[in-house]
DNA sequence: TATGACCTTGGAGTGCACTCCAAGCAAGCG
DNA sequence: CGCTTGCTTGGAGTGCACTCCAAGGTCATA
């Protein structure tokens, strides 16, 4: 239903070192779901919203994911847990699809994301400090005199 | 409209060192919104769902937040950006309201949260490594040979 | 005292990221 | 052949965390 688009080969950015299970380069949607922890629903949804490249199909129209698709999903998974909105990831995917002239924009986006991640790590370390202080209080002195806000 | 509930005094857990702006211990909802970055809508919503203690009211029924309420909101803010669901924070608030016999449960909850935070920091550092590799690629070699997945 | 900014309420609406559904096709097996 | 399992689609539904609205009361200031 869709002729396979332009295939700029070699693997994504830094050549992902770990090739996925078994030999072939062709996985069903449920295999991919098992590998990634996403549901098949979510994988199809990612495709609909433009977060995925055009996925190969079998002669009967079923999706056949490649190792490179899995690499992409790896990246998406990583970006997802930085809190990056799906819309931004779609934007990045679009830049990749648009070709080499978007290198600058992609670099920018990655740099910005990097800054976000650093900031989030700092926030979490801050929170960790607060938790540690609270936990220390509950551990000893707290039992006698600590009090919190509710009621 | 609400007689002020039991007031276990002294400040929350570890005595928060920084007293908030100006002298008094009484802030309007919009002042609190300004301090915390939350909207007044959100502050009222937090109250409705049981995430806040019973807030003092002026003689005409307007909310008057205390420094201790601000301390609580500080904690809530920190927990919020660990990704803790609001429902869990409500649970914690309930434990505090229920009194001293919930110390164990509170301690548990904080410990678990601490573990989550550590895990999330680790994930983010992992993601950071991926981003750094990708950025390095875009910085130099990438310009010639990198390729991603979409299309 | 009147104007405008601020506060109150219950309930409805929004945006995000899924998550599921119904109807239907295709492949493998006893 | 019939059955089960797995895949397909568009579209509708869900849960979370807000976010806003309408209608009305309050407060400071010119």
Explained architecture:
The structure is a homodimer of 151-residue chains. Chain A is mainly α. Chain A has a single domain, classed as Multidrug-efflux Transporter Regulator, Chain: A, Domain 2. The first copy, chain A, is built from 6 helices and 2 strands; from the N terminus they run ααββαααα. The first copy, chain A, has a two-stranded antiparallel ribbon with strand order 1-2. The longest helix of chain A is centred in the last third of the chain and has 37 residues, at 103-139. Chains A and B meet through helix 3, helix 4, helix 5 and helix 6 of A and helix 3, helix 4, helix 5 and helix 6 of B. Chain A binds a DNA duplex (30 and 30 nucleotides) through helix 2.
Concise synopsis of the structure shown:
Chain A has 151 residues and is mainly α.
Keywords:
Multidrug-efflux Transporter Regulator, Chain: A, Domain 2, DNA-binding, 6 helices, 3% strand, mainly alpha, 151 residues, 2 strands, two-stranded antiparallel sheet, extended, homodimer
SSE diagram, text form:
The structure is a homodimer of 151-residue chains.
Chain A lengths: L28 H8 L3 H9 L7 E2 L5 E2 L2 H14 L5 H13 L4 H37 L2 H4 L6
Antiparallel strand pairs in A: 1-2
Chain A binds a DNA duplex (30 and 30 nucleotides) through helix 2.
